[in-house]
Amino acid sequence: MTPLLPFERLVLEGLGAALPEALRPRYAQQLAHINKVQRLLDWREIEFFCMRWFRVRWPEGLLFENRAEFELGAGLIRAAGAEQRVRVWAVGGHVFSIEAEQGLKPWRDARDLSFSPDPRPTGR
Q: Are 98 and 87 a contacting pair, CB within 8 Å?
């Protein structure tokens, strides 16, 4: 099991609080089922999986109705005067990734983090 880092949890939970009320419980359950995290491309893309029996297997009841790839939302993470814009994507009916233009690896040890979701609607 690969645990979420504090900044990853902050982004995912902060975005969840900004989702429409109807999506929040399902989204929170998806976060609870993440048991593998893959950090790619100098951490410009961080992918989330629910692994069971050595395969990606998200419980059907937790999936969003929209199974296409779409942006769940975006926002800014901040710490010690630095900020980074991130976007959170869903693929196949579940939260799939956090993406950024620059690598997120320096955020792994950041303290006093904050996250501000964009107020704009997304392609849910």
A: yes
In the sheet with 36-40, reading across from the earlier edge strand, the strands are: 36-40, 45-49, 94-99, 82-91, 70-79, 114-117
Mean pLDDT of 6-13: 95
Q: Are 59 and 50 in contact (CB under 8 A)?
A: yes
Q: Which helix (H) or strand (E) holds 7?
A: helix 6-18
Angstrom distances, CA of residue 24 to CA of 18, 34, 73, 80, 110: 9, 16, 13, 30, 27
pLDDT band at 110 (very low <50, low <70, confident <90, very high): confident
How would residue 57 be classed by pLDDT, with cut points 50, 70 and 90? confident
Cα 111-112-118 angle, rounded to 5 deg: 115
What is the value of pTM for the model shown? 0.90
The 10 Å Cβ neighbour count of residue 71 is 14
How far is Cα 72 from Cα 122, in angstroms, rounded to an integer?
6
